[in-house]
């Protein structure tokens, strides 16, 4: 299935138009300790939170993939005998199952085709784009300008008494299930790990508008949506013979409202090299550490 898509780039352009002034600082990243993880063939599947858009060095411009993303850190730490990273910015479950196109419109095969019978480890981080992550952030940021103390985004997505975002999460369950079942058929002996998503807004309170332009009353709502998405991923992993790596808990206190030297996820105007509202290199490092710990447990 080929369909040119530029959701991340369009979202970044749209969000940049809303920006206020920010300052930048240098980024330092620690090296993780080695863990007892599978040392055979490792295949990484996923979306932009996996690929690491705009984090130096970008090794695939069609997928905006960095060689400092968490799969690269894990592969180096584990000493994987071979490593294949097919994560791609903008990817959905359909891209994993059926293929699609990247940010430059170049056709890509199904990510699942990289998983072979001799694969020892598969990690997958998917679902954010299935519920419309980029569009949600853009809508909520724009709505906050007219009602920074209110809940314009929640009001929009719960109009008529139905929470549209919760419905999208529910509708994504069979899609993630198909991905995990496809992985298991392709690599029956592999360890399969599903990663959740790190904290974007603070785990408590009402955010930091206008630095992160989400209206105060919308922050708890969006926090709940992300936690619901992560819970769905954890439950779906358990139901399909995979394990779940919680990257949200270790990211608490490192959300987009924190200082540029602390945060794992950037805000509207990144102060570290990363796409808006996406992990920086520190965040990728943090997710790698959480994944290694989960594998070692």
Architecture overview:
- By secondary structure, this protein is of the alpha/beta class.
- It is built from nine helices and nine strands.
- It is globular and about 55 Å long.
- It has helices spanning 7-16, 48-51, 70-78, 93-98, 133-144, 152-157, 164-186, 218-239, 281-296, and strands spanning 41-46, 58-60, 65-66, 82-85, 100-101, 107-108, 119-125, 191-195, 243-245.
- It has a five-stranded parallel beta sheet, sandwiched between helices. The protein has a two-stranded antiparallel sheet with strand order 2-3. It has a two-stranded antiparallel sheet with strand order 5-6.
- Helix 3 crosses helix 9 and helix 7 (164-186) packs parallel to helix 8.
- The model is unreliable at 16-35 (pLDDT under 50).
Question: Could you list some keywords that capture this structure?
Answer:
two-stranded antiparallel ribbon, five-stranded parallel β-sheet, alpha/beta, 297 residues
């Amino acid at each position: 299935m080929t369909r040119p898509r530029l959701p991340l780039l369009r979202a970044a352009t749209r969000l940049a138009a809303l920006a206020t002034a920010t300052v930048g600082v240098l980024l330092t990243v620690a090296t993780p300790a080695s863990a007892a993880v599978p040392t055979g063939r490792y295949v990484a599947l996923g979306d932009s939170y996996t690929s690491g858009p705009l984090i130096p060095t970008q090794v695939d411009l069609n997928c905006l993939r960095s060689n400092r993303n968490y799969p690269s850190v894990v592969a180096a730490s584990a000493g994987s005998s071979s490593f294949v990273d097919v994560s791609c910015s903008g990817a959905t479950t359909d891209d994993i199952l059926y293929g699609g196109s990247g940010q430059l419109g170049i056709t890509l095969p199904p990510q699942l085709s990289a998983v072979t019978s001799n694969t020892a480890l598969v990690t997958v981080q998917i679902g954010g784009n299935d519920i419309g992550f980029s569009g949600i952030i853009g809508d909520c940021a724009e709505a906050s300008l007219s009602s920074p103390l209110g809940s314009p985004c929640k009001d929009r997505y719960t109009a008529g008494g139905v929470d549209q975002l919760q419905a999208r999460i529910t509708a994504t369950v069979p899609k993630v299930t198909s991905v995990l079942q496809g992985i298991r058929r392709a690599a029956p002996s592999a360890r399969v790990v599903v990663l959740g998503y790190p904290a974007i807004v603070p785990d408590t309170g009402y955010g930091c508008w206008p630095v992160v332009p989400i209206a105060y009353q919308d922050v708890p709502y969006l926090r709940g949506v992300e936690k619901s998405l992560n819970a769905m991923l954890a439950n779906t992993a358990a139901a399909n013979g995979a394990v779940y790596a919680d990257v949200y808990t270790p990211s608490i206190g490192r959300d987009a409202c924190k200082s540029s030297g602390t945060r794992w996820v950037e805000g509207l105007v990144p102060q570290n090299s990363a796409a808006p509202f996406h992990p920086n290199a520190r965040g990728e490092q943090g997710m790698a550490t959480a994944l290694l710990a989960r594998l070692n447990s």
